[in-house]
Every structure is written in C-alpha cells, then in structure tokens.
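fyi for ur records
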Amino acid sequence: MAAPLRGNLDSVPRAARLWYYGAALLAAALATGWLVRVPLAVPVLLALYAFGPLRAEHAYHERAALLGCRPAPRYPARDLLGLRYMFETAASLRGNVMLQRRAQVLATAGHTFVHGIFPDWADCVTTDEPENVKAVLATRFADWNLPAIRIKSFLPVLGAHSIFTTNGAEWQHSRAILRPAFVRDQISDLACVDRHVQKLILRKIPADGKTVFDMQAMLSMLTTDSISDFMFGRSTDLLGDAPPASHRFGAHFDTAMQKIAWRARLGWLTLLRSDPELEEGARAMRAFVRGFVDDVKRERADPNSRRGDGHKYVFLDELLKSGESDEVIRDHLLSIFTAGRDTTTSVLSYLFFELSRRPDVVAAIRAEIEALGTPDPTWEDLRGMRYLNWVLKEALRLNPPVAANQREAVRDTVLPVGGGADGKAPLFVRKGTNLRYVPWIMHRRKDIFGEDAEEFRPERWEDLRVTYEYLPFNAGPRICIGQQFALTQMALITFRLLQAFKAIERRDDRPPIQKLGINLSMLYGCLVSVTPA
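which gave:
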C-alpha cells in the first residue's frame, strides 16, 4: 500500500500527481492479483520497479513545492532517456559548435535548464547564472563534489590522487601539498620562463615579416619547456634539440586530453568501450614522468650532486620531501603539468590571434612597455602594467581556459535561481544531480558585459567590477592555486614578444573556431607573421 501523501498537493505539478496515483493503483492491483496468480509475478515486479522512480519523482516535486522552488525548463522538451541530448552533444562536439549551441539554449530557456543524458537516470542542470555558480562554488560548496563521471574519465591519465580527481579530505591533503609551489617567492621568480621565451624569440620565430608560422604551436612548445623546467629542474627542450621521447610525450598528451574531455561530456556510455589509443598514451605519459622522477631521485642520492643546493626552486624536489609515494607524486606532477601547460597556451594563442587583427592594441601595449623604462621587468613591474593586465583579463574573458565545468550534488540542495517560467524562482536539486556551469557563455552575456560582449575590448576593464560573473580560474575553495603563476607567465611572455616584434599580422582567412577539450584551443592554430622591432 502506498504511503499517504504529505504536504500541499495543489503545489505539486498535475502530471507528477497523475503518474504517482496511476503507478500506485497499478502496483496495488497487480500485487493483489499476484496473491492468486503466480504467473503475474513478472508484471508485478515490473510495476513495482517503475513505481519507485515515479514515487521519487513525485516526492521531488512535493519537496520542491514546500521549499518554494519551481521546476526549470527542460531541454529537449521530450527526451525522457536523454538520448536526443547525448546525440546532439556528440554532433556539436564533432562540429566544434557545442558552446555556441549551449549559449542559444540558455538564452532561450532563461539561463538555466534541465536535461537528461543517457544512460544516467539522474537529471543534469546546465546554467550560466552567476548566483547559481556562486552557490555551487562557494556558499553551498559542501553540497557539491566533482562528479563521478568526470573522475572516472580522468583517471587513466591524471591518476587517483590528482587534485582534479579527488574530493573531500584527500583533495584537501593534495591541495595542501601543492600550495607551497605557488607562493610569492616562486611565482615572482621570472628567470625560468624568461630563458625559454628568449630561446623562442631567438631560435624559433621567423622574424622577417613575411614567413607564416603557427603561434599556437610555438606557445605550446614554450609552455611545455617552461613548466617541465619548473617541475623537474630540466626542460623537455622542444624549443631546442629535444629527444624523440619529448615529442612523443607532447603528442600523447594532446590526444589523451581530448579523449578524456569527450568522455566526461558524453557520459557513462563512452566508458563501456575500451580505447587502446588512450590507454597507450596514458602509459607513455606515466613512463615519461616516472623517468624524470627516477633521475631526480638518483641525483639526490648522489653525494657529489649539486641538486638541491638552493640555486633554484624545483617543484619535484619539494614533492619528494613530502614523503608521498611515487604514484602520488606522479599524479601530482601530471596534474600540475596539465594546468601549467594548457592554460597558458590556450589563453595566449587566442590573445595573439586577437592581436594579429588589432594593431591598435599592439601599439598600446608597446607604448606601455616603453614607458616602463626598463628592458627587464620585475614581477612588480608586470603587475603594475595597467593596460597589459586589461588585455590579459579580456583574453581570459573571451577564452577562459576551462570553458565549461561540472559538479555533482552530494545531498539535496537548492540553487538560488533558475526555476519557474521567468527563471527567477529557486530550483530544488536532488542528490546525484549533475550540474554544468559554462564560464565561456557567462562571460559573453550582454546583460552583464554590455552589448559589445562578443568583442575584444580591453578598455572595458577600466571601470568594470565583477565577482562570480567572471571565472577564468574558478572560485571558492577550489579556485586555481596556480592563478598568479599563470598570470605572471602570460604577462612576461606577452611583454617579451611585443618588446621584440612591433607588428603581428594575421595570415589565415578561415574563421577563428575554438576547439573544446579540457581547455580551449584554436582549431586551425594561430597563423601569423611578425615584424621585428
């Protein structure tokens, strides 16, 4: 016998009440028949199986009504199993238009909508509302974790101990171990990245004003060399005479990142099939990092080695002092490498695409460099360059490194807005619901950033004040611990390149399509030529 209904039934959607009553009557009728007819056992069990989710659906609407919440729009409207949404997502990923497609839906649905994704029975919520993002990342942080699908998707590459695959106490422990690498003494030391930028300028970039090259590929080599130098005390030397293993590592890394991003966005069905290419790449990446760890451990054990004599900071040396296992250290290294390499490459590739069609912005930055009065800026100098920092903020607005992110509710909770016909009512979210928030779309909202929100205009930052509307590095307890490290790298690289070159010209007429992986990248690269100063 069904439990009596509680609460104000008039506030529960009529469809939910009808489903509940219908399922209850069917289950009761079949159960009565089963007492005299054993052959009816199968339909009884099926009815009871269906009754559970239907009763849960009714309970959800009842509790939401009691809390003053309203349901959010559902997209697609008739997609009970989430199959249509899954196929649509796959198609938009292949066509590199997923972000644009989601922006259209959010604008139509009122900035928050609910959908399914096969084969998960739990609903997903997608939002670009700053108030909802604030609740998820800060004010109701304890109600949300990294989702199970993301962790499962990332495990083959980043491991079980990464800050990107852990929650709770283990995540807090990992973050505490990594945080000392990003204190001011480390991020203000410009020598590591500077020597690699100089190598890029002197050895790689063709500076005749005519030769076309891919700035994105150059920046990828630069950031790989600089982050490996910071982490291991030696670089992959892609800008120099890199061994074949370094090039293979870069190729494996790019492929693996794209594949795990695809899995995380398309859901559990993608995990049913093994992926030999991903597995091979993950093994190669782990072996590559393990080789560095073994070399450093041998050097530390050598009494004649000068390693660790204080001449420069090396991240791996500090990790080894923590006493963590080799497996844990490897996972941390891969995590920092992922964040340190791809964030800077993504943002600067987009920035130099914009600079290639904005000579006025190039001229303004060069004027600020000249006004500084020194060829070798300090960390404090870079922080004080007002226009350069506006430019970086604008590049991060239009090209946030992580364009879309996910969380999973660990308990029933409430989002401040998103419910009701106007999207202004609170939205009740049950335990197990996945939520996707999309900074790339939020950063383009005209009601927040103005009618020219799609345009690259650094001057908007002269008087613009934002909080959770602007999330290039996330926010709350999980805010990126390498934020200042990344900003310092970006500022110095931009300073050096525009100090060396007075003009950057676009050499590609194709549209600037952004490819969505873990981070954003330029689908066709950033094809330019440069003129020396």
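Residues 45 and 454 are 55 Å apart (CA to CA). thats all i got for now
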